[in-house]
Amino acid sequence: MFKKGFPHYKRIKIIVFDFDGVFTNNKVFVNKEGTEFVQCDRSDGLAFDFVRKFINKKLWDVKLLVLTREKNSVAKTRCEKLGLDCYFGVDDKKSYLLSKYSNYFDKKESVIKGLAYLGNDLNDLSSIEISEFSFSPSDSHKFVKKASDYVLNEKGGNGFVRAFFEKLLDFDNM
């Protein structure tokens, strides 16, 4: 479901990913020692190899980062492997984004210009509202799907990130 035409990649200057429910299927495994494990999709990880090549080839100036409320370091560990900046333990994502990207904020439209936000749950709603472009997986909370500009067919943790990049960068026509 797309509420507006899919943006051209050059319009996007910042891509912010939530972690759980975007890179994962929103499930957590806990062993008897209390150590948590999550499952990520390798195709999402591989997408960043393609994206970095695309960025270098097209000289696309874009920031990629993960912003999560989760305090467990599993997101940080995965992001290090993917070469992504990760800010974890952020309870108020909207305030974080407004402070970090205030120079992109368009008061007239109440959005951060060039910001694409990918999220799936209620704690992402306020960030979705201030993003120029918002994307969610098909298994997102119903309010998130309603608020998002684009709901992709893929579920979180099942190739959603890769599908986002393939659509954004028009892989079908490369």
Describe this structure in words.
The protein contains six helices and nine strands; from the N terminus they run βββαβαβαββαβαβα. The chain has helices at residues 42-58, 74-82, 93-100, 125-129, 142-147, 160-168, and strands at residues 14-17, 29-30, 36-37, 63-68, 85-88, 105-106, 111-118, 131-136, 150-151. Strands 1, 4, 5, 6, 7, 8 and 9 form a seven-stranded mixed sheet that branches. A two-stranded antiparallel sheet has the order 2-3. A hairpin with a 5-residue loop joins strand 2 and strand 3 (36-37).
Order of helices and strands: EEEHEHEHEEHEHEH
* Rg value: 15 Å
Beta content comes to 15-25%
Note the gap between the termini.
23 Å
> Helical region count?
6
Please count the beta strands (DSSP E, at least 2 residues each): 9
- Structural shape: globular
List unreliable stretches of 5+ residues: none
From the helix content, strand content and strand pairing, which structural class follows? Answer: alpha/beta
**Mean of the pLDDT scores?**
93
Estimate the helix proportion, in percent: 25-40%
Q: Short summary of the structure?
A:
By secondary structure, the chain is α/β, with parallel strands linked by helices. It has six helices and nine strands, in the order E-E-E-H-E-H-E-H-E-E-H-E-H-E-H.
Characteristics:
174 residues; alpha/beta; seven-stranded mixed beta sheet; two-stranded antiparallel sheet; 6 helices; 9 strands; 31% helix; globular
Question: Can you lay out the helices and strands and say which pair or pack?
Answer:
Elements: E1 14-17, E2 29-30, E3 36-37, H1 42-58, E4 63-68, H2 74-82, E5 85-88, H3 93-100, E6 105-106, E7 111-118, H4 125-129, E8 131-136, H5 142-147, E9 150-151, H6 160-168
Parallel strand pairs: 1-4, 1-7, 4-5, 7-8, 8-9
Antiparallel strand pairs: 2-3, 6-7
